[in-house]
Amino acid sequence: MYVEWRRLHRDGMRRVHEQTVPLYQRTRHFRVYASNLVAQPNVSLGVIPFGVRRTVWPLEAFYAFDNSQVAVETLTAEINLIAPGEIGTYLKAFNELSKLAARGPKARACITRAIDSLG
To answer: What value does the CA radius of gyration of the chain take, rounded to a whole number of Å?
Structure first.
């Protein structure tokens, strides 16, 4: 389902958040691909090092709720996918990206190098 951001948010965010609570409550395995993810104690952060050869290049952030739904954020809209084939495509992309990611001390080293390169 395609929902334009302006329409989705025209009455504020409260209704939007209340409608998504049940989805988050019933989801047991939540996967995220987002370039702006902030590490939390319950989040495993993987960083794809700069020099790694990628086979997948997603253009947008996406969130997978178990195997039942994927929310895709584009510049102007949120798209909620429920078709098994489309969900499978995003889960495969997430798995491929996850294989490339550094975690723990290696991820911290990647982040430190990136920060250091800024001067």
So the answer is: 16
The two structure tokens encoding residue 111:
């982040």
66's tokens: 């178990």
Q: How many Å apart are CA 80 and CA 71, to the nearest integer? A: 4
Angle at 41 between CA 74 and CA 14, to 5 degrees: 45
Residue 90 has pLDDT above 70, yes or no: yes
Tokens of 71: 């929310």
Rounded distance, CA 111 to CA 16, Å? 33
**88 vs 78: CA distance, rounded Å:** 18
What tokens were used for 86?
């489309």
18, 40, 68, 94, 119 from 57: Cα distances, Å: 32, 25, 23, 10, 28
Q: Count CB atoms within 10 A of the CB of residue 16.
A: 13
- C-alpha 106, offset from chain centre: 21
φ, ψ for residue 81 (rounded to 5)? -100, 135
What's the pTM value of the predicted model, to 2 decimals? 0.60
